[in-house]
């Protein structure tokens, strides 16, 4: 049998010295050798059976055959809550579990629970492209779209930033009956209702900014209010007062809602987008609806220092 030399350099290799085929190896062993007759590599098992010659095709065929890598016949595929898989192939097991999760959730295993958290899906999620659909209206300090940022929280939310500014962002809306909702609404800084009367909220207006808004006020009331030129006129239709001030002002996930049926307007406030509190009275105002918006609606109270955040916007 030939001699084997092993290299200990940076790129190790095994060198086989050619010779005659060896005898049968002991039980549990295999001989690998290079035969001088053809200068090729062979191996002999413990039954005395010679295999070979070994060729590059053998390695290529093995690399191309992924069945060994996918073989799961020796394992048990057990999930937590979605049943087990009896498949013997790794990909088949993954497919079984994916199908079970999809069936259990009514869709993909990692989908947002639309319908309970937000519409399915909302018109605007502020996830990177929504502001292209909006224009800014400045009521103080040259407020512009450049003061607004999408994906402000968790890849979602629009932020309206006010640094000695006030105003709103507006989206074109058809003149029809509507149900306008904005979710995940919060306000900070001196927009906070307990600070000053900036009246943050949402509104439905005509091309001149006349319309109806649902706003927060420093007296801890939420008002359905009348607007002229994007500003509160002093007229309110209905309201709701939260007698627990910290709850009224600190909640960070309001859903604001304005509905219009012909010329009748109703305002609603919700903490979960499921249960709604209507304002104490409806409003009657005739306008040609042109836009819906988010912002501050009492700019004559001075510019603001703070921000408004909103997670989504939807009109049906």
Explain what this protein looks like in three dimensions:
- By secondary structure, the chain is mainly beta.
- It folds into three domains: 4-65, no CATH class; 71-111, no CATH class; 130-315, Jelly Rolls (Sandwich), CATH 2.60.120.200.
- It contains four helices and 22 strands.
- The protein has helices at residues 56-64, 67-70, 90-105, 245-250, and strands spanning 4-6, 14-16, 31-35, 40-44, 50-51, 77-78, 84-85, 134-140, 148-149, 158-172, 178-189, 200-205, 211-216, 221-228, 231-241, 254-261, 264-270, 276-278, 283-284, 291-296, 304-310, 312-315.
- The chain has a 15-stranded antiparallel beta sheet that branches. Strands 3-4-5 form a three-stranded antiparallel beta sheet, with no helix packed on it.
- The chain starts with a strand and ends with a strand.
SSE inventory with pairings:
Layout: E1 4-6, E2 14-16, E3 31-35, E4 40-44, E5 50-51, H1 56-64, H2 67-70, E6 77-78, E7 84-85, H3 90-105, E8 134-140, E9 148-149, E10 158-172, E11 178-189, E12 200-205, E13 211-216, E14 221-228, E15 231-241, H4 245-250, E16 254-261, E17 264-270, E18 276-278, E19 283-284, E20 291-296, E21 304-310, E22 312-315
Antiparallel strand pairs: 1-2, 3-4, 4-5, 6-7, 8-10, 9-10, 10-20, 10-21, 11-16, 11-21, 11-22, 12-13, 12-20, 13-14, 14-15, 16-17, 17-18, 17-19
